[in-house]
Amino acid sequence: MPKLGMEPIRRRQLIDATIASMHEDGFANTTVQRISRRAGLSAGIIAHYFQDKAGLMEATMLTLVEALRREAVERLTRARGPQARVHAIIDANFAPTQCVPEVVSAWLAFWSMVRQSPGLLRIQRIYQRRLRSNLMHAFKLFLAPAEAERLTAGLAALIDGLWLNAALAGGTMDAAAARRIAHQYVDSQISVSEPRP
Q1: In angstroms, what CA-CA distances link 61 with 110, 141, 152, 169?
Q2: Confidence check: pLDDT of 170 > 90
Q3: Whole-model pTM above 0.85?
């Protein structure tokens, strides 16, 4: 019988091993056996904690989404002013913790599987809704509604595009360059946008 309190530790070990395996072996070669071996645990423990590989993949993607949410909340709490809130959202998406090669590779793997997995699709939609909601809230504080919609769509697409570009480039991301590109885009768009009436 496992020791009390071991479940969160074991679950985290398996999620970390899943991320590492997707980075090093690719999604197609990420098997229950490889994950459990990498974590130093038996393959049966995956079924015990996650039911199956699909459950482990969903838990792993949720972990990445939750880490991104924490980054955003932390930065938004410190932001002073509406435009600073937009920059905080950008900075959260390109934070050092988000831009390590293993995490970039994991996101790409999940994006490639979203259409085949209802669970992953649901998590992806949560991420997209949260990003758009945060951006819309920030933009609406100082821009006309139509402009807020336009900039939300453009910036969300730019963030995803910068991520996809990094993932396809082998999982390496120049986070500072990505932040700079996104900041320049949004600042230039704000300068020509209709302010909030």
Answers
A1: 7, 31, 24, 21
A2: no
A3: yes
Yes or no: say if 35 and 18 are a contact pair by the CB < 8 Å rule: yes
Rounded to whole angstroms, the Cα distance separating 51 from 73 reads 31
The count of domains in the chain is 1
Task: Read off the tokens for 113.
Answer: 């599987």
Q: Which residue range is the domain that position 114 belongs to?
A: 6-191
In tens, the pLDDT along 117-159 reads 999 999 999 999 999 999 999 999 999 999 999 999 999 999 9
Contacts of 48 (CB under 8 A, 6+ apart): none
| Strand (E) or helix (H) holding 49 | helix 44-50
We report the CATH number of the domain holding residue 101 as: 1.10.357.10
pLDDT in tens, 31-43: 999 999 999 999 8
How crowded is the C-beta side of 159, counted as CA atoms within 13 Å?
A: 26
Compute and round to an integer the Cα radius of gyration of the chain. 19
What secondary structure does DSSP assign to 82-148, as a single string?
A: HHHHHHHHHHHHT-TTT-SHHHHHHHHHHHHHGGG-HHHHHHHHHHHHHHHHHHHHHHHTTB-HHHH
